């Protein structure tokens, strides 16, 4: 685990927090909100988990590997749901989740 | 500001976090989700602000008065919205918000 | 996993957040702060992880089992460190961590 | 309030979270930790408040102005304390706090 990998993972986590927050807010304004329930639910969880993971990484916590494993799960679930929707915010969110999942898997190993 | 007032405010904040989380989760499963957009939005903000306020109070932060003022605003807005819906989870949430707002106003003064 | 187990775990998490916040704040005022570095570090991590876990449980997130596993690790580490110090706040924190670890292990299984 | 101001403020908040987390972790390893008590305390508060403010801004919350006012107070206090210490991590943190305070004041107005 290099300093560059940690830095990359923190950035991926923070980008994912932003993408999830923006997607959840946009989903809450979509006309067909009935179809966005899963997105909103998973965006919230994913944003919360990514935010914690980023902070544990920033402070060099010994819990970082286990947190990264949890974060990878959160990102995977959110990407799977958001990826099914055609909205730009969903597609951007799915992409941010996949990058974050990948960065987290490296540190979780 | 007495120790009892602080303790009461922490408990009101934590009860409000729980009520908002439960209300948001339940709103996301309501058939008429179209009408619950505002609730979900404000539940999230209120839960996040109450959670931070509780922790600043627990640690005796100098920021607690200003945080309590923000928290009272968050609770007021959430109570006003949730109070308009007949669902049990909305009514419970509105009640928890009102108690938390009251406790926060005392410490914000 | 019963509703009572979830409720008990949420309460144990919130009690642990409070105990960790109070312990960290008290450690930062101890004359022999040099010996409290580990406590302060682990109190912070543990409070952050417990706070997230409580909220995921409150909202019925699918991530709750994995979050409980992370939380049990955080509590275990914090209890081991705080339990070595004779201060009341450290002993109270260690006790809250052990109860939270136990409640989390049940839901992580 | 323009989109660019919001974007700038979010970035300033996230940079401040990182600087505060790194400063707190480094302070906890400083030989003269006795002098770093205030830094550690304020780093924690500031990181927590900046993290919440960033997320409220990301989701377009109506609470953002009041949160930015709280955040500016947190940053001001942290910059005043960290600025008094010669450590690189303290100086970097003070600088991040000042930039974040400035960005927050614009949105709090």
From TrEMBL, chains A, B, C, D:
<dbReference type="Pfam" id="PF03860">
    <property type="entry name" value="Csp"/>
</dbReference>
<protein>
    <submittedName>
        <fullName>Four-helix bundle copper-binding protein</fullName>
    </submittedName>
</protein>
<dbReference type="InterPro" id="IPR005560">
    <property type="entry name" value="Csp_YhjQ"/>
</dbReference>
<dbReference type="InterPro" id="IPR044543">
    <property type="entry name" value="YHJQ-like"/>
</dbReference>
């Amino acid at each position: 685990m290099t300093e560059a990998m940690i830095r990359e993972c923190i950035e991926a986590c923070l980008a994912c927090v932003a993408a999830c927050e923006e997607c959840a807010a946009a989903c809450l304004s979509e006309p067909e909100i009935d179809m966005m329930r899963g997105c909103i639910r998973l965006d919230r969880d994913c944003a919360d988990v990514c935010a914690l993971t980023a902070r544990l990484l920033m402070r060099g916590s010994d819990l970082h590997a286990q947190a990264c494993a949890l974060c990878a799960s959160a990102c995977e679930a959110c990407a799977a749901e958001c990826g099914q929707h055609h909205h730009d915010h969903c597609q951007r969110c799915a992409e941010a989740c996949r990058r974050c999942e990948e960065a987290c898997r490296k540190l979780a190993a």
